[in-house]
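Q: Could you fold this chain for me?
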Amino acid sequence: MIVSIIANIKKFLKEGVLMERKEEIILATLELASEYGLKSISMAQIAEKIGIKAPSLYNHFKSKDEIVKAMYSFLREKAQQNHSSGFADPEEFSSKGLEQILSESLTAYLGMITDQNMMRFFRVLYSERSINPLAAEIMLEETEHMIRSTRNLFYALAVHGKMKNRGIDTAAMTFALTVHSLIDYRMDMITAGKTARFGDGETPYTKELTAFIQWFSEQNGGDIHEQKAH
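A: Sure. Below is the predicted structure, expressed as structure tokens.
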């Protein structure tokens, strides 16, 4: 039994070391990509950055694309750990109006994507998605994730009478894609040097996002929303 325990401890320690090395590789790749762009860096450069030989790097990742995919999953998970889940709990709907629910849900999502490392990663993707299929694929995955989550939230909101029970799929698509377009707009402003941070003031919100949520809530509020408005 002692032998088995020792073996398990060794396995755990080995896995921990491997994860630390993978994290080191991911963050080194992010740093290089932020400076030179994804397409311009090589596995040899990444290996040199962390002080190992290129063949050793292939023990952890088979290709640069595999590193980038792992980077997306890793950074997204880390950012989510620092923020609550992106969309509201249906059990909390009863005392809140549509605008408040959407604002709170989006606040958590904006907190995740504006995490320092996620911002660096997304800025790289935004700059390369028109020429790099992998960058476009990751951005597409993020957008589709947002659409699915929004659709699920909106169906729950309709059941609770918080928004109109019609055209929910279209409403979810409209909301998610408009939010992503406004995020794109802000990212472009940051890249162009028009602003230094994502949100206005002390919040992660821009005035455009705030105005859109208010308008969307007025247009799509259900019976409960309309009763509170009168």
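A (continued): The chain has ten helices and no strands.
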